[in-house]
């Protein structure tokens, strides 16, 4: 028996990295998964995003844990496509209990101060995409009628301005992740009458392909910014996806049944330095 038996979870950005980690962990606790990912690159984002093969692997791992998995290829920026994909998942595995709005992009190291395509893509994905995700999923939780948990994956950059370098990329990332915290607080109030808890998890840099790619690594080596990577705890350059997943698991479980409207840093002390 798992803590999440007889539940259905929607996870965006599920093809790899944090999203895959969350999907597998929730499946191990008994949840069926609707796994959403764009499965395509974006022109203004300077690293490769997850692929359909990556999403298929997430599905395989969920099924290996003994749970159902529905892959949905959709861009969170496209509300209509996201709603249609989520509904297809609901038709297959049932109404939703848990939402993890995890999809996000970054362009650390892009020095352009005026790039509207970069700024717009980051904000549209990281902030508007989270709003779209709630629109596409929360009505299902309300229909099910037994409450639920929504976790928005923000960032330590949603709690601090450290690392700002004047670039469109970093301005957009910090602004969008601060915006996610605002969405969380507003949604916690809006959805409380339906017994839906809404919280955010705010990790510092995580050892996933979003950070561990040639563009970001080379950019950080060429233009080091200690304010981005500085941690209070020694020897922790990056946290692991599983560290974020542990916070997510707690927030979607009955163990946090009275926790709503909070932002939980998983950052080795980055935001308090």
TrEMBL record:
Keywords: NAD, Oxidoreductase. GO terms for molecular function: oxidoreductase activity. CDD domains: SDR_c (cd05233). The keyword NAD applies. Signal peptide: none annotated. InterPro entries: NAD(P)-bd_dom_sf, SDR_fam, SDR_subfam_1. It comes from the Bacteria. Belongs to the short-chain dehydrogenases/reductases (SDR) family. NCBIfam families: PRK12826.1-3, SDR_subfam_1. This is Short-chain dehydrogenase/reductase. It comes from Mycobacterium conspicuum. The lineage of its organism: Bacteria, Bacillati, Actinomycetota, Actinomycetes, Mycobacteriales.
């Amino acid at each position: 028996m798992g803590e999440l038996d007889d539940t259905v979870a929607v996870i965006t950005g599920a093809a790899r990295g944090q999203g895959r980690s969350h999907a597998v962990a929730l499946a191990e606790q008994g949840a069926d998964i609707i796994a959403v990912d764009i499965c395509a690159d974006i022109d203004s984002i300077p690293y490769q995003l997850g692929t359909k093969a990556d999403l298929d692997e997430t599905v395989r791992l969920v099924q290996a844990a003994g749970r159902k998995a529905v892959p949905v290829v959709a861009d969170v920026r496209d509300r209509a496509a996201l709603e249609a994909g989520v509904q297809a998942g609901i038709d297959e595995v049932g109404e939703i209990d848990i939402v993890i709005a995890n999809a996000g992009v970054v362009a650390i190291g892009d020095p352009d101060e005026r790039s509207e395509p970069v700024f717009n893509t980051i904000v549209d994905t990281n902030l508007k995409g989270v709003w779209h995700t709630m629109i596409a999923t929360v009505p299902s939780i309300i229909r099910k009628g037994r409450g639920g948990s929504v976790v928005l994956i923000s960032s330590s950059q949603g709690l601090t301005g450290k690392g700002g370098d004047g670039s469109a990329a970093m301005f957009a990332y910090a602004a969008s992740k601060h915006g996610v915290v605002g969405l969380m607080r507003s949604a916690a109030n809006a959805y409380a009458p339906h017994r839906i808890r809404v919280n955010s998890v705010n990790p510092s840099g995580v050892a996933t392909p979003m950070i561990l790619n040639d563009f970001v690594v080379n950019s950080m080596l060429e233009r080091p910014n200690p304010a981005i990577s500085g941690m209070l705890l020694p020897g922790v350059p990056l946290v692991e996806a599983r560290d974020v997943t542990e916070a997510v698991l707690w927030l979607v479980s009955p163990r946090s049944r009275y926790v709503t409207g909070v932002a939980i840093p998983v950052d080795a002390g980055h935001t308090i330095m």
